[in-house]
Amino acid sequence: MEIRRVGVVGLGTMGAGIAQISVQSGFDTVGREVSDELAERGHATIERYLARGVEKGRLSETDRDAAVGRMTLTTDLADLADCDLVIEAVLEELDLKRELFAELDRITRPDAILATNTSALSVSDIAEATDRPERVVGMHFFNPAPVLPLVEIVRGRESSDDAVDAAYRWAEQAGKQPVRCNDTPGFIVNRILIPLLNDCVRVLDEAEVTPEEMDKAMTNGAGWPLGPCALIDLIGVDVHVHASEALHGKLGEKRIAPPDRLVRMQQDGALGRKSGRGFYDY
Ligand SMILES: NC(=O)c1ccc[n+]([C@@H]2O[C@H](COP(=O)([O-])OP(=O)(O)OC[C@H]3O[C@@H](n4cnc5c(N)ncnc54)[C@H](O)[C@@H]3O)[C@@H](O)[C@H]2O)c1
Fold this sequence. Notes:
The protein is α/β, with parallel strands linked by helices and 282 residues long. The protein contains eleven helices and eight strands. It has helices at residues 13-24, 36-55, 61-69, 94-107, 123-127, 161-173, 189-206, 211-221, 228-235, 237-251, 260-267; strands at residues 5-9, 28-32, 71-74, 85-88, 113-116, 136-141, 150-155, 177-182. Strands 3-2-1-4-5-6-7-8 form an eight-stranded mixed beta sheet, with helices on both faces. β7 (150-155), α6 (161-173) and β8 form a beta-alpha-beta unit. α1 (13-24) packs across α2 (36-55) and α2 runs antiparallel to α3 (61-69). The longest helix has 20 residues, at 36-55. The chain is globular, with a radius of gyration of 20 Å. Bound molecules: nicotinamide-adenine-dinucleotide.
């Protein structure tokens, strides 16, 4: 099926980025927020990033105006009725997502694809809330969505090949680098990266190295573009601890659980870049 019109539910950090990708790639896009104020805030974020693209010479003013013109805002989910693809990016709560998918199932055409950007929940558990689990997939973008190319296209238990392929093709048309995978905890990147980052934090104390030394070691010895401590500061210590707890809850492996040092940092409000201090001061 051809995707022409896209809906994005939730214009927070991820949703605003996904909506921006969509309009910039030429798709008419309806963004839904819970209030006019939040919708305006999401829209302002999209406009700000598009303006930055113009400043940096990546986007012409004409293309920017055309992209902004493709974006419609609403607080009414019913306005997503004509969408061929709806990407959900609301809070990471299973009941909330299930409720939303049940409503989207009633509102949208039966062949529309419903995608979730969940990081840690099961796509299949969300799909079960609908009468069309074969049209439900995961589309896991990475933060910041307009910058990081990867999108994990997640096959739920009952996702059809047609829905998975259509989501994959859309991601390619939107300039992304999609990869298909099964609906397993952490999908691909987080399953590997979360325990790996937690190991790095444990090594800080075991080997008595500073964050600077750890980052120097991993950038120079393993070729990482960014050291693990700088990366956790960028992700946000609270976000990383939460993701570790969620993945640990599903897989039970000790090394996935957040190290005490990170939990203490979270309790002290040292959350990384966003709080002005984490492993480093900002
Ligand atoms: N932030 C990341 O690094 C990242 C990366 C990949 C995936 N994700 C996933 O993306 C999703 C959104 O995360 P985010 O970081 O953009 O969150 P956010 O807090 O920035 O935005 C949350 C959104 O949920 C909406 N919302 C809150 N309560 C709602 C309700 N009752 N009904 C409908 N909408 C409601 C908000 O209005 C907002 O648009 C989550 O599932 C998260 O796991 C996040």
